[in-house]
Structures are given as structure tokens and as C-alpha cells.
Amino acid sequence: MASQLNSLHFLRLLLLVILLSASGSLNAQDVSEKPPMGESEASESEGKPSGNATPDFDKMSAREFFALIDFGDSYLQMFFDGQPLEEGEQEAVIRALTRIRRLQPHRITRWLKLETPWKDLEENPQEHRLDIFLLTGNVEAIRELIVPKEAVESVGLDNYYEVDAMLDTPNGKVLGTIVVEDIPHPWKVTLNPEKNLVGAPISFPGVLLKSFKADDDRQGFVFATPKISWHPTEPNSDLGVTADQVRLAEQGMDIGELSHVKDRVKFEGLEREPFYQMMAAVKRMPLDQQTAMSDQTVSQYLTEPTEGLMVAPAMYRAKFMRLTGLCRRITKIEVDDKDIQQRLGIDHYYELSVFVPIANPIVSQRAGDESTRKQFTNDYPVLVCVPELPPGLSVGEDLHQSVAVTGPFFKLWAYRTPFMSQEDFTRRQISPLFIAANVEKYAAPSNPQTNQFVLAMLVVLGVVVGVGIAFGVVFSRKPASRRR
To answer: What is the pTM assigned to this prediction?
Structure first.
């Protein structure tokens, strides 16, 4: 029990890691690649009443805010405590989900309650209706529910999910039903609770809708949430969970966010959250866990013809790898998103351009156009993002510093470079992007064959020099009459 409570306390300390998608600058060098504003960033003006009065959102409770955006008492009265969710409550549930969409991350952060008064929720649920609590637990079952056809167009929602879970409390577990608009993508691909999902660890900000009694008279609660975060504790091939992903989940990362990552394109809005979550998780990870689980290096993975990093990147998502190479550029990226700063403690990071050696050429060419051929023969650019730099490394261009890095692979990133985009502005460089906690200055090991060759040359040179000196001494002793 003590270990369970410690785990629960750890997840609560990481609460701001697991809430909602948020925006943040990924590359200050290229404003055009900044993702567009998403729903969570939409203006709260649509929640303002007509007239001249402007409500003070910062002084509102969650319940007052919901009332302002048309989810007030008339809908709350549709919920009946003491019984599980019924069909007659679906209209109120759908209304809750469509209104939760409007909650900005910083609002949830302010209203979120870290401690849940479970006894009071059972005895006085009406007083806590629409309060928001940080909750953790384990999945029991999942059901997909269909929105009536006549309502789909007006609510902008055609289906949603009910997730049954055992929720953590200081005194054990309690029943929970969580209504949510979407679930992690791997769950939908293999929606088989009996085999795959029972026991899956989750966390979420839960908006209380009602309390109920189960058929066996056990107490339960219904919560709505904008998002369920998934923290698997063991690998699962059916769900695509690897041992490396488990390491990140143990540090609070929502592994479900990885399904938003897309390769061979610029950064898109939904990729920002997994990017920053991965960086925050790696920062927290103990150093002895930041190790590659394979002896193969990035240089070797790059040129594998059928299952290499450049042809099958999804196979390596979040895989910890080791790379060594020549760092030619370091850029500091300022993160101006307040939500990322507050939730994840990241206000900047450094982007390193590292050229790693390759055994075989890598060619980029537009189909059927030989004139667009670009070839990397000896090395290839790889990007690494780290929260801090070690002593001796600093921001700059035209660097020539050997470095070593170990960290998880994030994606194949398409970005502009002078080499690739000079003749065609739309053409992009495709490079693996890694996230790491730190970077090491690195002295490349010498080649034994080269050492033997150099030693042999030094011996020959020594003999030549020695013979030259000997001849010089001999000739310097000739009679003076023969010297001119």
C-alpha cells in the first residue's frame, strides 16, 4: 500500500504534465512553421455575455464559468445521483463534453483540486457538481456511444466513450465512469479490454457530474474529462508499447500523445505536446536509465535499407539511441508559451545540428528529376534538442565540436536548410530529431590500423633522420683543406 501511495503522490506532483494539449514555439528561426491556433487556444469571448459588462474570468469558479457558456442548472438537473448513467442523461453528458472543449489549459490548472474529498462527494454530490479533480486509476472497460443522428450536426460530435475505471483514493479503490470525447488511438485500434486494456494506468482532470451506486451497492462517481492520459507500466506489443516508452511513462509522459507525431513533415500543432512532454520526462529521468537498449548507433540505423530509421521511423518512436558526430551548429530556442513554462518547467532549449558518419550514401531526389539529386556521402545531419548545454559548449554557427548524445527518437523532421532549399524554397531536409537530457563533448576513438600506420611512418622517419645526422657528423670531420 505504501508503494501505491508513493506512486500516486508522484503522479500528483506531475499533474501539470498530464492535462491538455498546449501550444509552444518549436523553432524560433522559422515562424512560418509554427502550428496554427487550436481549439484550446480559442478566445474566451464566445463565453462572454452580450452588453458592456466584461466578466472577470480569474475570479470565477468552474461552475460559474460553465454557467456562462450555457451549461448551467437546467442541464445539471438532468443528472440523477444514486444510479449509474442512463439514456435520459445523454443530452446532459453531450453538453458537458462540448463545453469542456472550451476550457483553456490555464483555466483547468487554476481550478484543479489536488485532493478529492471522496466522502463528501458521496454524501453531498450536488455541492461539488462541476468541480475539477486530479484523478488517477486503472481501466476496467471501454464503451463507444453514438450520438443520435438528429443531434450530430448541432453538437459537432458523432460519438464519445465511457471508460469504467478503478480510481485511486487514500483508502483504496473506488468505481468511476469517465465520459470523454476521445481515447488514445492505440486503444481504438485494438479495443479489446479483456485482453489489452484492463489495468491500464491512467490520469485525468475529472469534472464531477454525479455519484451513483453500483448493482453490488458499491459507491461510484461519474466524471467528464477533456482527455485521458495513459501511463503504461509494461511493454505491450498489441498496443505498440515498448520498454523505452514505459521508461518515459514512468516519468509522467502521456504515451497516447505519441500517436499525434507525423514523420517527414514540419511540426504540426498536436505534436507540440508530446515534444515538450518527452523533453520534461527525459529531464526527470535518472541518469542510469538514460541508456540505449541496443549496441547499434544512429549511424548504423540511418542506412539500413528496409527497416532503417529513414524508411521505417515509426518502428523507432521514443527508442533511446546513442549517436556520436560533429556538432556544427547550436541554436537557443526560447519557449514563450506560459502554459508550457508552468506545467513542464521549460522556457528554453537548445537545438544541435550534428553530422553523424554513415557507411553508405543517402540520396534525396524528386521522382524522375535527376537535376534535383542531393547526396550525403560521408555524414548526415541529425538534430538533437536538449534543455541545457554542458560547460564548454555554447550557441554558435560553423562549429567543429565532436559530441555524444543518448536520447529517444521523436520524429523525422522536414525543415529548410541552405543545402536543400537554396534552389527550391519548398524543398526540405529530412532529418531524425532526438530529445536528450544532456550532451557530452566527445573525443572520437582512434583507429588501431591508423595508429599502426602512423607508428610505422614515425619509425621510418626516425631512421631517415638518424642516417642524415650520421652522415652530417661524418662529413663534418673531413680535413679543413678539403672544405671550401
So the answer is: 0.81
